[in-house]
């Protein structure tokens, strides 16, 4: 199979319609906060990552998703198609399309509650043919037994398998053994690695060839076959951090599918994630590849040696 054909990414995962309320702050338990605005946006970790692969990463992208037979499905599918994602859609008449309820604070932080709906109906037999696909990208908003089955079939077919372990949960050794890349944030690494005392220990504990930890505005840290790579974050004025992590995942796997070295993939994914934080919404906020490349071409905005040194010092503590 040619290298061009192997660049295709298949994302199998969740698709939701996000209901977003803007407010001064995220409510504490028992607190009622008066919101200031309401919007709906297509979202879901799987769908967000598929859009990021296609739009920010610029690689051929397919997605396996499940939706209900309701009005919420239409804007999700339209957003994916608009981004250039080819769809394999499972329609479940017994379950509603997945939804997420998001409170977005003026600080750009958010609180999210997900009602998975049809996402829980994805089964092993729904995985489409893998011919021409080089990478399979998964998340944890669909059933873990299904994810494990997809990863097993992908590895048997010679694909690379990446998992974004979000939302956080303990992962079996059997699933970890099927992965080429694991992407987590600090909280997810804490769960997956069994509450390590520090980042370095957590990275060392996870038996996956490549483990990447996103660190929010600080950037990311990766262990790749024993080598540690650091990528500082870009300085931005955040508006909405929704889908920042998903954009990182999609842009990263797109870069790897495009045969870029890991250091370059981390840089591109961090840039794409930063741009996402400057806009409202989930998929609506994901930048184009041209926008990512423009940011990378601006020497005044690319993290410098001092930023690398600061991140290294912070990760060593």
Automatic annotation (TrEMBL):
It comes from the Bacteria. The active site is at 246 (proton acceptor). PROSITE patterns: PFKB_KINASES_2 (PS00584). K(+) binds at residues 240, 242, 276, 279, 281, 285. One of its GO terms (cellular component) is cytosol. The keyword DNA repair does not apply. Pathway: Carbohydrate metabolism; D-ribose degradation; D-ribose 5-phosphate from beta-D-ribopyranose: step 2/2. GO terms for biological process: D-ribose catabolic process. Its EC number is 2.7.1.15. Activated by a monovalent cation that binds near, but not in, the active site. The most likely occupant of the site in vivo is potassium. Ion binding induces a conformational change that may alter substrate affinity. GO terms for molecular function: ATP binding; metal ion binding; ribokinase activity. Substrate binds at residues 16-18, 44-48, 141, 246. Its cofactor is Mg(2+). It catalyses: D-ribose + ATP = D-ribose 5-phosphate + ADP + H(+). PANTHER family: RIBOKINASE, SUGAR KINASE. Homodimer. Belongs to the carbohydrate kinase pfkB family. Belongs to the carbohydrate kinase PfkB family. Ribokinase subfamily. This is Ribokinase. It comes from Stenotrophomonas rhizophila. The lineage of its organism: Bacteria, Pseudomonadati, Pseudomonadota, Gammaproteobacteria, Lysobacterales.
């Amino acid at each position: 199979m040619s290298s061009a054909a192997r660049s295709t990414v298949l994302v199998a995962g969740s698709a939701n319609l996000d209901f977003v309320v803007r407010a001064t702050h995220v409510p504490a338990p028992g607190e009622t906060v008066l919101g200031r605005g309401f919007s709906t946006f297509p979202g879901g970790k799987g769908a967000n990552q598929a859009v990021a692969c296609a739009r920010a990463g610029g690689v051929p992208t397919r997605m396996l998703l499940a939706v209900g037979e309701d009005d919420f499905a239409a804007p999700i599918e339209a957003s994916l198609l608009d981004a250039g994602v080819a769809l394999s859609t499972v329609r479940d008449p017994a379950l509603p399309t997945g939804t997420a309820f998001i409170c977005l604070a003026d600080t750009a932080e958010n609180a999210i509650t997900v009602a998975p709906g049809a996402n829980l109906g994805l089964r092993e037999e729904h995985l489409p043919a893998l011919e021409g696909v080089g990478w399979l990208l998964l998340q944890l908003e669909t059933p873990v037994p299904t994810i494990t089955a997809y990863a097993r079939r992908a590895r048997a077919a010679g694909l690379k398998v990446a998992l974004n372990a979000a939302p956080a949960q303990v992962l079996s050794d059997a699933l970890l053994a099927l992965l080429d890349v694991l992407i987590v944030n600090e909280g997810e690494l804490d769960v997956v690695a069994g509450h390590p005392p520090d980042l370095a220990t957590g990275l060392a504990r996870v038996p996956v060839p490549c483990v990447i930890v996103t660190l929010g505005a600080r950037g990311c840290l990766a262990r790749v076959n024993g080598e540690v790579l650091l990528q500082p974050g870009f300085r931005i004025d955040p508006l909405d951090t929704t889908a920042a992590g998903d954009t990182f995942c999609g842009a990263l796997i797109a870069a790897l599918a495009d045969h870029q070295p890991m250091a370059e993939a981390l840089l591109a994914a961090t840039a794409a994630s930063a741009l996402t934080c400057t806009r409202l919404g989930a998929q609506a906020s994901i930048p184009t590849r041209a926008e990512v490349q423009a940011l990378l071409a601006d020497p005044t905005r690319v993290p410098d040696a001092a930023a690398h040194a600061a991140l290294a010092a912070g990760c060593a503590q």
